[in-house]
Write a structure and sequence with these properties.
- The chain is α+β, with helices and mostly antiparallel strands.
- The protein has 26 helices and 28 strands.
- The chain has an 8-stranded mixed β-barrel with strand order 19-20-22-23-24-25-26-27, surrounded by 5 helices. It has a 6-stranded antiparallel β-sheet with strand order 1-4-5-6-2-3, with helices on both faces. Strands 8-7-11-10-9 form a 5-stranded antiparallel β-sheet, sandwiched between helices.
- Helix 11 packs antiparallel against helix 12, helix 17 runs parallel beside helix 19 and helix 19 (592-603) packs parallel to helix 21.
- The radius of gyration is 62 Å and the shape is rod-shaped.
- Bound molecules: ligand C2E and magnesium ion (2 copies).
- Ligand C2E binds at residues 508, 524-525, 536-538, 541, 554, 557, 581-583, 613, 643-644, 667, 700-703, 720-722, 727.
- Residues 643-644, 664, 700 line the site of one magnesium ion (MG).
């Protein structure tokens, strides 16, 4: 029950006029008879007016006396559901829901009414039929000093208002409840999110559009090394300088509307170390949808990438040696074939099988066997180019693809190299081991056009190598085998030739064209092979260069030439300059200067009588180093000439810098001198150029008088060739010289 503050409420009842009406009403008739002087007509008029007001009032009005209904207006009956007139005399409690309700009203109302205050309550009351009617009740005692005299009640049906109020209150309550729920949900969600961010193994940070870091979680601290305090409010430092533009592009995608962007990028740690990461970027928008920054979620995938790479590597490589496996070999073979076709070149597929691996493995154990195989792999790599493929097929079998072959004959030197490298002793765990290898070769395109065919043929060739006694190689093609066998025979024979004294020098005279006299001779090496007879240098010098044997052979040539020259001098022969050929490999790999000094001092030959023939290829490698060596050689008093001039790449400036004495015009120009005007022009140009540089010229390969004639016309200084004499053994050369002398003296 709600009690209102009476002072604040409008009080339509508490007026004198109303009191009058109330007091007068029951008495009207009696007064009219007893006191006719009271101007009854006007009073009656007033009463009627009040009567009308009461009858038509829109509020219920009730008069009670002794807690019973004295009188009420029709509205009151209507509100409480009583037929008008039946209420008079009814006790007050008929309006109340329960006796307790009635009693409580009494407790509240009595003191208020007694103190002349207005009772103002909103209370559910009872209709005649027992239903509830919500009323706003106001009441006042007619005489506060004696409340039993009567009370006037004004009743207003506020059921509708109450229902509306209640509905409003309920709605309000419901809303409040929902807001409460929602707030607690939000708080919970925020808490959960915070836990996730703080404990996530992923770096999570946010940055504003100004690139300044806004938040930075513990994982970011661990991943990148900057603490939260160092990171927040600072520009991002995780992006390496050269990756900035890539990263900005990702943000640009987020700006232009992509909601989630995922990409693998490289980021950097505080110490500068780079890490592979997977980055997820999402735009941050405020409640109005306006972008204000980005959230970055970052996973370190360095290890994952490494593992992935390792798995990929293992899928295509032999785990022991790290060499490509058969799968990758096949792929490389396809690529090599495609490339060979494009470049119109050949390639070789080589099958290698170690000859004694099983013995090593069985007697020394698998661990030794494994390290042995690894060493084999390392050595094989050193024998081929980086672009070639070496693969381990399992066990002691290896396969090599040699690409970019300009001819089939380029493979024997490589195979010889492989055989030699593998024969060099291995040292493992204090044991010295060595192995030999059997190699089978198939050539593309001659032996087949696909991997399967070629590998079958290479395998067959390898078995033939085994059958032939191992430690050798065999081509699938028989013709190739003959040539290759010769290569092997020469290579193996060269090793012994020096010790067995199978080398000799032949001498070819060099003629001064002005005087017609022999002024020198070129020393040309010959190999007196026990089986093949006299082998020309063209057949063994390249093999000697390839195997490194050129160094001791070259040393022998210099010593022998000096010795011979000195012998001739002692024998009283005319003084001649002896020219010795130097190979580029020899120049590169050995101390030529030392050899020359040794040979001169051992023989006692005056350096003026020794000439070194260098090729243009020597001059263009390691220029400064070669220049220094040549200068020192010249200081000794030697002569230097350039052999086969015109076929290489020497420039005029080199010729000047190297202080060369003589150019030997290559035979290829001399050969067609008389018939090919181009060659004539070249030879003439060489001679003129040499002259202007103060160099002498000698023509090689002069075979006919016509050539000689032409060279004389061009002003060539010297000549050498079959027209004068073929290269000949020393004894013959002496006879040649004495014969020439007798002819000259006769002439
Ligand atoms: P080269 O130094 O240009 O020697 C000249 C070659 O031409 C010699 O061949 C010689 O026999 C040949 N020849 C001389 N006159 C004529 C001719 O009128 N017509 C034709 N067609 N050929 C002629 P050889 O002796 O077979 O030597 C070939 C090459 O082997 C030499 O070319 C030289 O580069 C190299 N060589 C020879 N001896 C040695 C040596 O002791 N050490 C080194 N490193 N290389 C050598
Ligand atoms: Mg020569
Ligand atoms: Mg030459």
């Amino acid at each position: 029950m709600e009690v209102r503050d009476a002072r604040k409420v409008f009080d339509p009842v508490h007026t004198d006029t109303f009191k009058w009406s109330y007091l007068l009403a029951p008495m009207t008739d009696s007064y009219a008879t007893c006191m006719p002087e009271l101007n009854l007509p006007s009073m009656q008029q007033t009463l009627l007016e009040y009567q009308a007001i009461l009858e038509n009032a829109s509020v219920g009005i009730l008069f009670t006396r002794d807690r019973k209904v004295l009188h009420c207006n029709p509205k009151f009956s209507e509100i409480f559901g009583w037929p008008h007139g039946e209420l008079v005399g009814q006790p007050g409690f008929v309006f109340y829901l329960s006796p307790e309700n009635y009693a409580e009203m009494g407790r509240i109302a009595t003191p208020i009414l007694a103190s002349a205050e207005l009772l103002d309550v909103e209370i559910p009351m009872c209709r005649k039929d027992g239903s509830i009617v919500f009323c706003h009740m106001r009441a006042r005692a007619i005489n506060p000093n004696n409340t039993a005299e009567g009370t006037i009640w004004i009743a207003e049906d506020i059921s509708d208002k109450k229902t509306a109020q209640q509905a409003l209150a309920e709605a309000h309550q419901e809303l409040e409840l929902r807001v409460q729920e929602r707030t607690s949900e939000l708080v919970k969600a925020r808490q959960q999110l915070e836990v996730v961010i703080q404990s996530a193994p992923l770096s999570i940070y946010t940055r504003g559009l100004d690139s300044l870091t806004m938040s930075w979680n513990p994982a970011a601290e661990r991943m990148f090394g900057w603490t939260k305090e160092e990171a927040i409010g600072e520009p991002l430092r995780t992006i390496p300088k050269d990756h900035e533009s890539a990263f900005n592009k990702l943000h640009q995608r987020a700006v232009s509307g992509e909601s989630i962007i995922q990409q693998d990028v490289v980021l950097q740690k505080r110490d500068g170390m780079l890490i592979d990461t997977s980055v997820t970027i999402a735009p941050l928008k405020d409640s109005e949808g306006i972008l204000y920054g980005f959230v970055n979620i970052i996973a370190d995938i360095t290890e994952r990438n490494a593992a992935k790479q390792k798995i990929e590597f293992l899928a295509y490589h032999d785990p022991l040696t790290g060499l490509p496996n058969r799968l990758l070999l096949q792929d490389r073979m396809q690529q090599a074939i495609a490339q060979a076709d494009r470049q119109q070149k050949g390639l070789a597929l080589m099958f290698l099988d170690l000859d004694n691996f099983k013995k090593i493995n069985d007697s020394l154990g698998h661990a030794t066997g494994d390290s042995f195989l690894k060493e084999v792999a390392t050595r094989l790599k050193k024998c081929v180019r980086d672009t070639d493929t070496i693969s381990r097929q399992g066990g002691d079998e290896f396969v090599i693809i040699l690409g970019d072959l300009s001819g089939n004959d380029v493979t024997p030197p490589i195979m010889s190299k492989i055989m030699e490298r593998l024969q060099d002793p291995f040292h493992t765990e204090g044991i010295e081991l060595s192995t030999s290898v059997s190699i089978g070769v198939a050539l593309y395109p001659d032996d087949g056009s696909d991997f399967e065919t070629l590998s079958k043929k290479a395998d067959m060739a390898m078995f033939r190598a085994k059958e032939a006694g191992r430690n050798t190689y065999r081509f699938f093609d028989e013709e190739m085998n003959t040539a290759a066998t010769e290569h092997l025979v020469v290579r193996n024979g060269l090793r012994r030739a020096l010790d067995r004294g199978e080398f000799m020098l032949h001498y070819q005279p060099q003629i001064d064209l002005a005087s017609g006299t022999v002024i020198g001779a070129e020393a040309l090496i010959r190999w007196n092979h026990p089986e093949f007879g006299l082998v020309p240098p063209g057949r063994f010098i390249p093999i000697a260069e390839d195997s490194g044997l050129i160094v001791p052979i070259g040393e022998w040539v210099i010593h022998e030439a000096c010795r011979q020259a000195m012998e001739w001098k002692k024998a009283g022969l005319p003084e001649l300059v002896l020219a010795v050929n130097l190979s580029a490999v020899q120049f590169k790999r050995s101390n030529v200067e030392h050899t020359v000094i040794q040979a001169l001092s051992q023989s006692g030959l005056n350096p003026h009588f020794l000439e070194l023939e260098l090729t243009e290829s020597i001059l263009i490698q390691n220029v400064e180093q070669v220049l220094a060596t040549v200068k020192r050689l010249k200081l000794l008093g030697l002569k230097i000439s350039i052999d086969d001039f015109g076929t290489g790449y020497s420039s005029l400036s080199y010729l000047k810098r190297f202080d060369i004495d003589k150019l030997k015009i290559d035979q290829s120009f001399v050969r067609d001198l008389a018939t090919d005007p181009d060659d004539g022009a070249i030879v003439r140009a060489i001679i003129q150029m040499a002259r202007s540089l103060n160099l002498k010229t000698i023509a090689e390969g002069v075979e006919t008088p016509a050539m000689l004639q032409q060279l004389s016309t061009f002003g060539c200084d010297e000549a050498q060739g079959y027209h004068f004499a073929r290269p000949m053994p020393a004894a013959e050369f002496v006879r040649y010289l004495s014969g020439k002398d007798s002819k000259q003296s006769k002439g």
